[in-house]
């Protein structure tokens, strides 16, 4: 499983591309994004996203809260099923911060 900003150029080596943002990324057309599946339900809740606000000092707390949100969620089950179905999967995100975003968190949770 790889992660990539949705704004980076599409590559065939990305495999199955899953957008893990609740909101569609600004300024990118759906046909240009090459998204195979948009799993918006896997993204952090609006309240958690706004609280975190991509502030690195909140990262550890964000991970704990996000993991709690995902516990037992159908979206997480769906993601795990997609990972089993596809040899190569790339999680796409729109955030500018490449180290503190939900795609990074998901890779930590799934391993």
TrEMBL record:
Domain of life: Bacteria
Protein name: DUF488 family protein
One Pfam family per UniProt: DUF488-N3i
Matching InterPro entries: YeaO-like
Highest classification ranks of the organism: Bacteria, Pseudomonadati, Bacteroidota, Cytophagia, Cytophagales
């Amino acid at each position: 499983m790889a992660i990539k900003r949705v704004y980076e150029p599409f590559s065939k080596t990305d495999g199955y591309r899953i957008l893990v943002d609740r909101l569609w990324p600004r300024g990118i057309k759906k046909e240009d994004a090459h998204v195979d599946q948009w799993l918006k339900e896997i993204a952090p809740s609006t309240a958690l996203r706004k609280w975190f606000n991509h502030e690195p000092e909140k990262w550890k707390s964000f991970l704990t809260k996000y993991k709690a949100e995902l516990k037992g969620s159908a979206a997480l089950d769906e993601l795990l099923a997609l990972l089993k179905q596809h040899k190569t999967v790339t999680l796409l995100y729109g955030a500018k911060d490449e180290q503190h975003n939900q795609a990074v968190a998901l890779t930590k949770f799934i391993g």
